[in-house]
Specification:
Blueprint lengths: L15 E2 L2 E2 H51 L3 H12 L7 E2 L10 E3 L4 E6 L6 H16 L3 E6 L2 H9 L2 H4 L7
Parallel strand pairs: 5-6
Antiparallel strand pairs: 1-2, 3-4, 4-5
Helix pairs in contact: 1-2
């Protein structure tokens, strides 16, 4: 009995309590708690490590994809626009100088049927502008969205932000 004369005294380590031992119960409970804590900690650590690996792989994948696209660009304006997308974490195109029917857009987003053309000063010549118009109309008739990007970096943010289904939103991609 305990000192107050009420109930049984709280067992101490090593004290026998009838058919079982407090040490045995304590060890069993400790093992269960340790295993649960270990499993939870292991799961949390595993998730953190996997997320870090996913982020690194995503960054390496995006960088590698950007390098492949850049190598296919034919003009400085195309490279600059691609770097604008990459630096601002917009979605990169699937392909540069891809073939789409009769056209070869500067950039293609195949899954959303979008063709992007970077229009430099040569596109102001009447014969080039007429060809551009014919090709772009054909693409639109085939179901593609055609986005003409002027060779004016100051205009890019406003244009890209009008097409979140294609480019995503600034700072969210990779």
């Amino acid at each position: 009995d305990d000192a107050r004369g009420g109930g049984p005294a709280t067992p101490t380590v090593g004290e026998d309590r009838g058919s079982g031992s407090y040490d045995v119960v304590n060890n069993v409970v400790s093992n269960i708690v340790n295993n649960v804590v270990s499993d939870v900690v292991s799961d949390v650590v595993s998730r953190v490590v996997n997320n870090v690996v996913d982020v690194v792989a995503s960054e390496v994948g995006a960088e590698s994809h950007a390098a492949r696209l850049t190598a296919r660009c034919e003009t400085p304006a195309e490279r600059e626009f691609l770097q604008f997308l990459y630096r601002n974490r917009y979605r990169l195109p699937d392909e540069a100088q891809g073939s789409v029917g009769i056209a070869r857009p500067d950039f293609v987003y195949y899954d959303s049927y979008v063709c992007v053309f970077i229009d430099g000063s040569i596109h102001r010549y009447p014969d080039v502008a007429a060809r551009d118009q014919r090709v772009r109309r054909h693409l639109e008739n085939e179901g593609y969205i055609v986005i003409a990007i002027p060779n004016d970096p100051a205009a890019w943010e406003a244009i890209v932000s009008r097409y979140p289904n294609t480019f995503g939103t600034r700072g969210t991609q990779r």
